[in-house]
User: Fold these one by one.
Assistant:
Number 1:
Amino acid sequence: MSLQEEIKKCLIEQLSLEDLKPEDITDDQPLFGEEGIGLDSIDALEIIVILDNHFGVVLDNPESGKEVFKSVNALADYIVKNRP
Amino acid sequence: MAGKITVFVGGENIISPLGWGIQETFSNAENGKTGLRELAQPFQGIEKLHAAKFQNSSFSTDSAIAEFAGESCHGNLEELHFTHQPEERWLFVLSTTKGDIAHLKSGDVMRANPYYLMQQLQKELPFSSEGKVISCACISGLSALIYAADKIAADQVDHALVIGADLLSEFTTLGFESFFALDAAQCKPFDRHRNGLNLGEAAASVVLSKDKNLFKSKPFQYLGGATSNDANHISGPSRTGEGLYRAVSKALKYSGKHADDIGFISAHGTGTLFNDEMEAKAFSRLGLEKTPLNSLKGYFGHTLGAGSLVELAMTMRSMRVGLLLKTFGCINPGTETELNVLKENLEIDVKLALKTASGFGGCNAAVLIGKQ
Amino acid sequence: MAIQVISSCSIENGNIVVNGKTVFSFESGDFSEFLKAAFKKLDSPYPKYYKMDKLCQLAFLGSEYLLKEKSLFFGDDEVAMVFFNGQSSLDSDSKHQQLIDEEAKVSPAVFVYTLPNIMMGEIAIRNKWYGENLLILKPSFNFEEWATEADLLISAEKATYCLGGWIDAFQENYRLRLYLVEAAEIKMSLLTI
């Protein structure tokens, strides 16, 4: 499984995105906002927990999440760069 | 018909890390002291925390909250010309978000249910009463007060003792931490550089009655109160302050008062970026941006279900002595919409005050009290 | 009593009953599966539902079933919510506590549901209701007592309608008794005019 697919699976499971399947989310699709998959501020906080629990990556400042959480690709980049 | 009976509120008391009893608490605040301090390793997994916590040595049983809440109620009763009349109908309301939540760690679900705490406190009262627990996040205190006042106004009860109490717990601390809502240092409500809230524990209580002669010191008139939901988000404050705006508007309507009549606002003011901005928007929409306003979270921290009653009790004290307290922690007020945030204590006679609160679940509450 | 029931909905033991008629039954499966199946049956997509804890899902589900039964129009300030609740949010509280005990990172999505009033927020968001909210914790339900509280708000003209009743959800035990009430009309007999 690619890192992108792993991220999608994690998001769907942990954020209870019941109506979505991994193939419904494209790698570049915005996660937040109107064109996104409808995530909100609690989801953003939850992604911080997912990064830590599943990928061992710590994000201390939720402000920097804005860039990191833009898309599945952005998340994957951040994980690759910061993985222990 | 509801609303015909005038409701009085008085006998206010606070037991907090800032002081044991309202007198000590208010005088410490007046002298610029705060109950907040840096705690080293308050809970497992938390190295340090800026919060308001009682000294552990203050309590002798396995329920600190039952002790300090019981003490607060005891103080109320001393402020009353209380004679036990069996025909008088008393209501006892506990306002809390999490009650004795510390017991959940050992899996004691029964004691972690706030109803158990209410029963414990009720047993100690010198009158028989109908006991209720109101739990509506951070507006619990005002929600309980409004409920009790409506019951008296509708002639369903004669008097009510309303107590708010919450603990500083590992449970809530870790939760707020996961929301990045905590300021590692002293909180700075309404300040330009505000960066989150501090948590605290306390109990505060007031008595409501249709009989003003019940009180040893002159009570205030409860003028009206309302709650309103933002219908927007379960944790994020409304960007437009809609719910708070509506709660205050309704409280004014029920009181037959206008925004201009309000001499002072005791705001919620947690010190988080979005909450304080939301309040500023709502007060500005109400035409209250020039009205003197404070947040007392810098003295007590956010004491959750106790908070709005702590702040109401302090407001009552302020009105009695003619001194409004500064917003401890706020150096440079800096909400986008400007407010008249008190940076220094202010000697002024306030005839009518507004107390507000907002919380998770999108809930908002507003209460107006007046000097007779 | 100065109020009358417009609609009611009860949910327990895998059955949803609206105004006395069973509208959904779920024979097998646990509480979570029931909550999911009953919502899917409504066929009105609302992704947020799946993020809610069981207490909120139960309240939300009841309100959706009850409100779809009759097409009523409410002003945005007209509906108050008053709930009596047995075990608070102890189901989610226990989940949050478990994460703490396991020394795991706690979940904001769990923590936000450790307050029982959140269910009223969820229903308010769904219906755009800005009205009054009241939540009273108590060990058991009595309709007359609840009706007194609903009447208190309606008589004080703080609400035109009141939605609420009894809700309890802890582990696999759950029960909802939901009512929508309004002020009783004063029925004047023609003979007295």
Number 2:
Amino acid sequence: MSKKITAPKEFSYVQTSDGIDEFRLDSNGLRVLFFEDHAAPVVNVMVTYHVGSRNEAVGFTGATHLLEHLMFKGSKNFNKKNKKQIWNLLEARGARMNATTWFDRTNYYETIPSEFLEDALAIEADRMREAYIREEDRASEMTVVRNEFEWGENSPFEALDKNIWATAYQAHPYHHSTIGWRSDIENVSIKRLKEFYDTFYWPNNATLTLIGDFDKEATFSLITKYFGKHSRSKHDIPVMYTTEPKQEGERRVTVSRTGQTRIIGIAHKTPEGSHSDIHALQVLSSILGRGRTSRLYKLLIDTGKATNIMPWAMPLHDNGLFMLYLTLTPNTKHEDVEAIVIRQYEDIKKKGVTAAEVAKAQTQVVADMALARDGYYNIASALNESLALGDWTFYTTFKEKILKVTPQDVARVACTYLDQSQSTVGYFIPKKSSTK
Amino acid sequence: MKDNTRTTLSKRLTESSPLEGMRLVTVPTNLADAIIIHGSLPGGDIWSPKDNPCISMLTVEMLDEGTATYSKNEIREKLESLGASIEFNSDSHRMGFSIRCLKKDASAVINLLALELREPVFPAKDFSVVKARLESQLDEELEDTKYRAETKFLQKLYPKNHPNYRYDGAALKKFISKATRQHLVAFHKATYGQADAIITAAGDIDLPMLSDTFKKAFAFAKAKKINLEQNPIKAFETKRDTDVISVPDKASADIYIGAPIGITKSHPDYYPLLLGFSILGGTFFARLMNNVREKKGLTYRTRAGLGGTDNNLDGYWYAFAMFAPEQFIKGEEAVMFEIENIVKNGVTVEELHTHKETVDGSFKVALASAQGMASVLLDNAEQGRPHEFIDAYVPMINKITLEEVNAAIQKYIRLDNIVTVAAGSIDKDKNPLGR
């Protein structure tokens, strides 16, 4: 018999999926996810804001990420002046903590010994609405973020990846990477950042996730105490309405820099993360490039044409990309590898995949899901990505939906989405150095 | 809230010996239906032939390319159809393996591991492909400014025959190119087939099954097949020195600063010094991140710590940072200021208290997963310590005094023997290369 889920009067119970309970703090609309487990004396606290670089536009690309940095600079009750700085209160007590920004979300998290749970909740609640967003902090942090951008630019892979996204998307903000363009990082004003904060950082645009060793009843009280003091936003959270126009033909991009590395990236447009074809696309990606028995590993790595293969088909909030990156060996031509990959795509479109290939991909998912439950952060992180695409139960229902995928589904999605006219192909080509 | 008194890990684990020489350490965790296994055996780089230090690494790279019983594709198919993985690795002293699989498949996966260790055939054709792949990866590392700075830094600290020395890409490519299948066969014959493994497993544990499987699967292995001789080679007596590696077209440059410390982990000064480096650059709120990043905005990442002290080796201290070429000189000065300041003025009581608390909490967090548990247990056992050391670690750290930390900093950070290596788009004077 299933246990009845109860919540204090301040909260509404919404749903349960795979042992994770969803509640809503009624006064301000904060979504709360609970997964209680007492195997280790630690707890993961994560706040996901439903804002990412898809909410940016020309002139303030990278603003979400820069703002994420400023969120560590102090808030009304946790700041340098009162000697209660965030890192000193959490990392100093052993927390594994940080924040990340991506296309569709921004998250702040800490895995901490559970006796410090109240501190973590108090800090997250304080910076939700009371963060200092100050010019003096922007000025010093801008150069830090710019160095993060420069560090990314050192990587041939990142340089090519940015260019492929920028070529595949013309109107939609997936066009620019989360770190933003250098000139925007340098010039975005504190006024713009503050506006961004005041537009999106509200309880009704956030999800608080707790995984691990906590007492549900006591934690409800703490959430009411700290997050309950915030009102919901007085404005509607703006909806990002730009859609990418239909692509009318293959696109190609080349990045050439001094060095040795040679990479090819091939990307095809896919539907939004909530689309029913997403699970078949995951299986297709696995059959093509996951593990040493995948089709392309055998064709390209085992034959010495490439050193590394990276399939990527992560579902996003809006239309995404089905991508494949290959790092080539010195004597292999980009064109030859591209031809092999495309031939394989055409082969699947024509002949489909075998039941054994689908079964193997499904087994891998079952094992992955079991192993991914190792550690509270891992569970919170998987939930975070599902929240980003708009439905946290994407995570809890993923296995069940993958197990329903058939070989026919895989062949169908290959025919639908691996269409040359919807592709973007990128080459990273090394050029000879002029400096010794 | 449940009882959060300190977990005594040594009482939660079980150690058994399925075979003479083999140590199997298991800890049940809340990971349901799955298991994580780590293990290692003597057989790292120091066992390689003197004229080719890559043979150990190449042997490890070839273990999953086929056995006498199964071809590489058969082995890979068996593993991947279970959703399982076996990964191999090697370092200066040991070769290691790790398994991730469902509990129900653990026996089958361990048997495959044993086959890969017992009877690899090193097919010549696949060896050529693996060599070409590794050479290509080394070419890619030429573009990694951090890797290049660190490699040169270690070369300036240690002679070639010291396990902490690191060959650069060009040298490694030559070694790889000279290696033959026969080298691997000979190395495997001389070094593998040992029972002297340390194996740690965490997750959904079935101890009788694990013990029985390891006993049967590794029945071929012999105890005490190879013996470790202590390394007599020590680090260089360094002098203050700087090297710059100019790499064009890089938006960010990296710097390593440091020197040999001449002591191992078992030296009484080691943990006081470790705490000192934690305060200098071990955390986000440590001095380097707080002052060079937070206050001055010069870098995204800077760290300091101790390295090269595993396997009873004489290690080194280091500080690392990355800067835009235009900020490089200013950045290096800021890091050096923090190093000189900690030597001159020491650390404070408050800093020491805070960093002790960090050690306590981070230990709890590290042990809160099967992956973390298996790794910590293996690392501890590889260093020859009893399991009780893990439980005694935090109390031991808490006993260290301010005087001990400051004395260790004064003794081991000598301003006259610091080696600096920078790599990036900067010239020999550390000014930006013309773009």
